[in-house]
Design brief:
The strands form four sheets. Strands 1, 3, 5, 6, 9 and 10 form a six-stranded mixed sheet that branches. The longest helix is centred in the first third of the chain and has 10 residues. The chain has 259 residues and is mainly beta. It contains one helix and 19 strands.
Length: 259
């Protein structure tokens, strides 16, 4: 089961779980129950393309001297879960995490989520997300955390490059064009990423290392265009460092034959 998380939606989802969950608006702890070692997507940003649904796994550890009864985590985007504009509970019948007992006091838990463009996420959902989590022990001790972990959900990026003419005489002008685009989760297509600084880099044929030649900004369509003087055989590429909403990406190098 998945939901777009608002206060009402969160409350409804938890009610459907038949779980006695405390109010979702503040951290709360009773007793010695603890949630730790929270890892989202293996520690990497969650990068989602234009159309394909993305599976996200969250793992965490719960400890309590009486042992764990159940646990649950909710992903959300916004300053608080009450103000969330998107979110999801763990896939499954009731949203509970799947937990494995390590010993009498410790359990390792896993939840899997699905983020689908235009359904669970829209363009404004890109950026920092948080994990709301609750764990209840067998002795009814509990802990609830509004933000037990933060992570990034990003719009997948693409970058192209073309250097011409080829071949070219040494000292003559080379024009290097390209385009930086990123997933539009609302249209299901890739669209130009405007006003972004992108590095033009060059690697000699005999080298394995790219060096930055200059920095170029994308235009209103995400397009790139600049000129350089031909100096030696090698590869030109554009390199984008990324932003909080869009991952870094390098174009595949385009070879120039200099005569």
């Amino acid at each position: 089961m998945r939901i777009r998380a608002t206060v009402a939606a969160v409350s409804g989802a938890l009610a459907l779980s038949a779980l006695a969950v405390p109010a979702a608006h503040a951290d709360e702890s009773v007793g010695d129950t603890k949630i730790s070692n929270v890892v989202v997507n293996g520690g990497k940003s969650v990068v989602v393309g234009a159309t394909a649904a993305k599976k996200v796994t969250v793992t965490f550890t719960v400890t309590d001297n009486s042992g764990l009864a159940w646990a649950q985590a909710i992903l959300f985007h916004g300053s608080t879960i009450e103000k969330s504009d998107a979110g999801a509970i763990a896939d499954g019948n009731d949203g509970e995490a799947k937990c494995t007992k390590v010993n009498a006091t410790k359990s390792n838990c896993t939840s899997t989520y699905t983020l689908k463009p235009a359904y669970d996420i829209v363009n404004a959902s890109a950026g920092t997300w948080k994990v709301w989590a609750v764990a209840v022990a067998k002795d009814d001790n509990l802990t609830q955390k509004d933000n037990v972990k933060s992570f990034q959900v990003q719009r997948a990026s693409q970058l192209t490059v073309n250097a011409s003419p080829e071949p070219v005489k040494k000292g003559k002008t080379i024009t290097v064009t390209g385009k930086l685009s990123r997933a539009n989760w609302e249209t299901g297509k890739y669209a130009g990423y405007t006003g972004q600084s992108v590095k033009l880099q060059f690697r000699k044929k005999s080298s394995s290392t790219y060096t930055t030649v200059k920095t170029v900004k994308t235009n209103s369509k995400g397009e790139l265009k600049t000129t350089v003087k031909a100096s030696a055989d090698g590869y030109y590429r554009y390199s984008f460092a990324g932003t909080s909403t869009t991952p870094a990406v390098n174009a595949a190098g385009d070879f120039i034959d200099v005569k």
